[in-house]
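Honest question from a wet-lab person: if I give you the sequences of every part of a complex, can you actually get the arrangement of the whole thing, not just the pieces? Trying it with mine:
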Amino acid sequence: GQNIDQPTEMTATEGAIVQINCTYQTSGFNGLFWYQQHAGEAPTFLSYNVLDGLEEKGRFSSFLSRSKGYSYLLLKELQMKDSASYLCASMDSNYQLIWGAGTKLIIKP
Amino acid sequence: ETGVTQTPRHLVMGMTNKKSLKCEQHLGHNAMYWYKQSAKKPLELMFVYNFKEQTENNSVPSRFSPECPNSSHLFLHLHTLQPEDSALYLCASSQDLEGVNTGELFFGEGSRLTVL
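Yes, you can. This is the full assembly:
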């Protein structure tokens, strides 16, 4: 079956760095996505990886290893506004997005 | 503001009621989607429309009935729902189905549905 695993909840300190991991098992692979969702708001697109390696976008970076079925989202210089849920999704061979349950990130002062 | 607007934001209904959720996108996109989001569960794709034509129906019970009168509007008609249908219903759009490849999925803020 198809499956996405990511931690349910993580806590980090303002100004620190946090890494949110995601492992995926899908029928085929057409890319790995990360979305951010603040409580009561719409999910918004953060990143897309289809090739192995690290993609950096400001304070946020996303990494992909296709051979390991593994991705992570790295958040640097954490700010209170980064408190949100982070959704990992893998696109399978039919271009269907398979979603994880999301990781709730709590930032403490 | 994502360019996708959903109404109502909150809805409480009884099991015998009939109600509708509305979604409107101002992005000129051709594909629209309904998702169900339950607490601590992955997003569940319910319906997909491309150029007003339904292309996906992921085994959704018939008590949920979608309608797409044009590429900018999407409705989800609800009738005789069950308490387990209580969830956040998210609408999304993309330029086209292939556009999902690049992550260009734009979500609305959702309609929080409670079925009593």
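Two things worth pointing out. The radius of gyration of chain A is 13 Å. Chain A touches chain B at residues 4, 8, 30-31, 33, 35, 40-45, 47-48, 87, 89, 91, 95-102 (CB under 8 Å).
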